[in-house]
Design a protein that fits this description.
The complex is a heterodimer of chains A (about 260) and B (about 70). Helix content of chain A is about 40%, strand content about 15%. With about 260 residues, chain A is α/β, with parallel strands linked by helices. Chain A has a five-stranded parallel sheet. A three-stranded parallel sheet of chain A has the order 6-7-8. Chain A is globular and about 85 Å long. By secondary structure, chain B is mostly beta strands. Chain B has one domain: Roll (Ubiquitin-like (UB roll)), CATH 3.10.20. Chain B has one helix and five strands; from the N terminus they run ββαβββ. Chain B has a five-stranded mixed sheet, with no helix packed on it. Chain B starts with a strand and ends with a strand. Classes of the chains: A alpha/beta (about 260), B mainly beta (about 70). Chains A and B meet through β4 and α3 of A and β3 and β5 of B.
Chain lengths: ~260, ~70
């Protein structure tokens, strides 16, 4: 192995004091069953999965549980606040999540409305303040606003997670300029959270210099989710390598690849 | 004396005061896999045995499910 190969193998990232190799975080929603969820997570190579907190079905306690298929001892559970539209609901949900699992690392998302699922930043700031005061390590879903991101980092968030496009839209990275600005200024990991539709979108996010990508629907809603999970794994690795390799400059005109000297 | 409580939004009657742990067992739920909120306050898992359910309590029992 060359020195560069060794560097690639050691290209890990730090999140809240822990080291991770995989830069792909996957959601566990929308799959046809838990078997498919587990297979897709395995194919993605993800070391962190997002999970939701919901009421237990009291009338049917024998329903299968996620923890029986994805062991929290093997994989980091990242509880989210999906579906919360106020800071209060988000904080309440994460307090329960911490008690259920015993983990401080959480994903905060406070949504603005049903149509866009765009983050409500006022409520997000409010929830962030409470959660950090209570000792949570907050990965925060946020708008692609570098000023808001800086504020969230200053407050103590452990990762900044702007959307690349609306949640579940699969539109790809719509805002590379803002994402790039957020990456340049941040001293904590920046991950694109939401908007990826296919492998090339994940690669674009990584080529911008993101520390990672978080996705759910792009894998779960693919015709073959397990195959797409592997595609995403390769795309994230590929995009990361391209970022580290440093792309060639864009030019306006052609530049021949073969030497001109010695032409017959 | 039976108690009227609310569990995950639904009313339910229990025959006598139970600890949170015993109540979860009557529901056939594994106390290790759930979290409980009682009247908007978290019930710490370490206190499931000693926390007694009282008349009028509102309980939320949650667990992890798939989500993005």
């Amino acid at each position: 192995m060359t020195e560069q190969d060794i560097k690639h193998k050691q290209d890990t990232w730090q999140l809240a004091g822990n080291e991770y190799s995989s830069r792909l975080i996957v959601g566990t929603g929308k799959y046809k069953d838990f078997e498919e969820t587990a297979a897709a997570v395995a194919a993605s190579g993800a070391e962190i999965v997002t999970v939701a907190v919901r009421r237990v079905n009291v009338s049917d306690p024998n329903q299968p549980m996620l923890v029986d298929y994805l062991d929290p001892k093997d994989i980091t559970y990242l509880p989210n606040t999906a579906g919360c539209f106020t800071a209060n609901d988000a904080v309440r949900t994460l307090r329960l999540a911490r008690e259920a699992g015993g983990w401080d690392l959480v994903k905060l998302e406070v949504l603005g409305d049903q149509k866009t699922l765009y983050p409500n930043m006022l409520e997000t700031f409010s929830a962030t303040e409470t959660l950090i005061a209570e000792g949570f390590k907050v990965m925060v879903y946020c708008s692609d606003d570098p000023i808001a991101a800086q504020k969230l980092e200053d407050m103590g968030c452990v990762a900044i997670m702007p959307l690349g496009a609306p949640i579940g839209s699969g539109l790809g990275i719509q805002n590379p300029v803002q994402i790039r600005l957020m990456i340049e200024q941040a001293h904590v990991p920046v991950l694109v959270d939401a908007g990826v539709g296919t492998a090339s979108d994940a690669a674009v996010a990584m080529e911008l210099g993101c520390d990672g990508v978080l996705m759910n629907t792009a894998i779960a809603d693919a015709k073959k989710p397990v195959m797409m999970a592997e595609a995403m794994k390769l795309a994230v690795e590929s995009g990361r390598l391209a970022y580290l390799a440093g792309r060639m400059p864009k030019k306006k005109y052609a530049d021949p690849s073969s030497p001109l000297s010695g032409l017959i | 004396m039976s108690l009227l409580i609310k569990v995950n939004g639904d009313e339910r009657t229990i025959e006598r005061s139970l600890s949170v742990w015993d109540f979860l067992e009557t529901l056939k739920l594994n106390p290790r896999k759930v979290a409980v909120e009682r009247n908007l306050e978290i019930v710490s898992k370490s206190t499931f045995h000693e926390t007694l359910i009282e008349d009028g309590d509102q309980l939320e029992i949650v667990h992890f499910i798939g989500g993005g």
